[in-house]
Amino acid sequence: MEIGLSHYLIISALLFSLGLYGVISRKHAVMVLMGLELILNAANINFVAFARFGGMNMDGQVAAVFVIILAAAEAAVALAILLNIYQHFKHVNLDEVDQMKE
Amino acid sequence: MTHDTLLTLSVFVLLTPLLSFMINIFFGNKLGRLSGVVGTTILGIDLLMAALIAFSKLVTYGGEHIIQTRFEWFSPGSYAISVGYGIDNIAAIMLMVVTLISFLVHLFSTIYMEGDRRYPKFYAYLGLFTFSMLGIVMANNFLMMYIFWELVGISSYLLIGFWYEKDSASNAGKKAFITNRIGDLGFFAGIMILFMTYGSFMFEDIFAGIASGTLPFNNPTMLTLAGIGIFMGAMGKSAQWPLHVWLPDAMEGPTPVSALIHAATMVAAGVYLVAKVFWMFTADALTFIAIIGTITAFVSATIAITQVDFKKVLAYSTVSQLGFMIMSLGTGGYTNGFFHLVTHAWFKAALFLAAGSVIHAMHHAMHHMHDHHSDPQDINNMGGLRKTMPWTYRTFLFVTLALAGIPLTSGFLSKDGILAGTLAWAKLTGGWHWIVPVMAFTAAGMTAFYMFRLTIVAFHGEPKTKIAGHTHENPVRIVLPLVVLSVLSVWFFYSPNPIDASVGWFHARVVQPETAVPAAYQWEFLIQDHQAAPAENHGSHHALNALQEETHHYHYLAMFLSLLIAGTGIALAFAIYQYKLISADALEKRFKKLHTFSYNKWYFDELYHATVIALMLAVSKAMAWFDSVVVDGIVNLSAGLATVAGKVTGLFDHVVVDGAVNLTARVTGFFGSRLRKLQTGNIQFYVVMLLLGVILLFYFFV
What we know:
The structure holds 2 protein chains of 2 kinds. Helix content of chain A is 75%, strand content 0%. Chain A is mainly alpha-helical. In chain B, α8 (220-237) packs parallel to α12, α10 (255-264) packs antiparallel against α14 and α12 (283-304) runs antiparallel to α13 (310-330). Chain B is elongated.
């Protein structure tokens, strides 16, 4: 059986679902961030797969590299926010970080 | 003197009295006593210039109708309003009359008004008056005529009410002004009728228009109405019945003013106007003028008989004589009417100045005797002044003879002409018109009677009061004007023949203008007969038309009749007041009702009070009621309605509009408070919702 586009897409969908599940269900903010990383990487796999099988030359790979850079920057900013949240609340439990709603 | 020089000089004549006004009104308080000298000097210069113009016009250019100029003043729309000024023969003569009398009055007043609080102002007003009067004289168009007409009105108002601290004086001023307004309304209407048709205010344009056959609104009645309207202006100024009531009251002004305005010049303006526009009167308008003049002459003569106030007698005599002039013009006697205006100006000014002299002397005597209650103008307080004031008496007697129409005086020449003219007119028109000469002759007789009554009661006999005994002759500055004016009432200034004026220069220079009215609407006998004129030449006598021819025939009859009647009047006056052959008191008792009627001036003032003034008051009361009840009611009602409406809209705003807004706010708030439950602030909840949304989208669209 030859590995085709659909296999990559299935992997990507599984990865996306896992990431989404992580983002929704985890209470700890770092875990949510990790779920986000999974979602981003699922998208990366899609980009690369479509680039390889969709005849889009190197555009997909370039987009994927951008996403990786974006993810790194996002992680840095997000972690900095988390540190501030921690300093303020002495924890990073997202359920209890809801002061802004009032 | 060329035409241009003459016109330039006449501008100076016009403006010089205005200079006197300016100086005295602005610097009067600084000048003080000097203002009289300044005013008199300026008027003296004015008199010299006027004499030069009159001489030049009458001698050098006597044959020319008018020397005039015109220029465009302004042009509203397609009209061009022209004005101008001009000197014709009657204007030249009037220039002399106005400036000479004004000068003498200025001179007279330096003593008469001495010590008055508003002495400089008096001279200022005299200057303004002289200016306005000269303006009327020089105007050659209706517009300027009307402007100066009103200026004369205002300056006479100022002068009559000069002693405005007295209620009677300020009321007399108002009465004169308002009565004149009524006449001026007609004047204005007349001018407008002509302006509507001919599009010009210039006399020459209008008369040329009428002569060319163009009638106002194509209707001969409108031409008659225009003539009557313009004559109404003359009725006001010249105090013709029924607008004569202001003139006797105007005696409240200082006596020199009475001489200047109410005898010689202002009242002459009306007659002058009628003479100036004589061309345009139709037969009907002329008849109207003649009737008014006759009624005036007769009515005021009957009133003058019983008056006891020195100046009132003279005032009614003035009204009567003005009636004579108007009557003469109305009967077509142009030359004689204007002639009487001039001769009357001299001797009536003399009479009034003599009255001023007497009153001045009486005042002094009263002052001397510390009497402040007697009336210095009541002739029953006088008597015997012949001895104490000889010069005043002599001049007064002479001008009284002139007024009575005794030969060798100017008054005889002019009055005789008028009376002959009325006879001729009555004969040519016939019928009830004979009433005119009958009333005219009666009035002439009464004139002689009341003037001699005045002379005898005031000057002859023994002094009736101590005051009269203590009077003294006045200084030369008062007597000189009297003498000058009396001398001017001698016949030879006007005609070499003492019983026939038609051979004199006056009749040669003041020639009846050819009528401009189409023959169909004019008396046949006023139309100039070009073929017949040379043939009818009697020596130096020129008959221009049938009326003049007829007048000439009646000359001797009129002379004998008037002499007879005047002689009877004088004899009666002597019999009653000098020799007491007939008791005046008994006569008064016998004709009690007639006497009261005349003494109360035919109750004209009362009549006007009961009719016109009462009507005016009733109308104004009704207006006031209308104002306070209806107009105020409407205003208050609308205010009330507005308040109610305001309250209603206020309530609407409060309940409905505010309610709607608040309801919106509440509804929004309600939903907001429900919906904000969704905003948990929990990011994971949002993500779940997002997921659900995506799933839903998939469900519906994929």
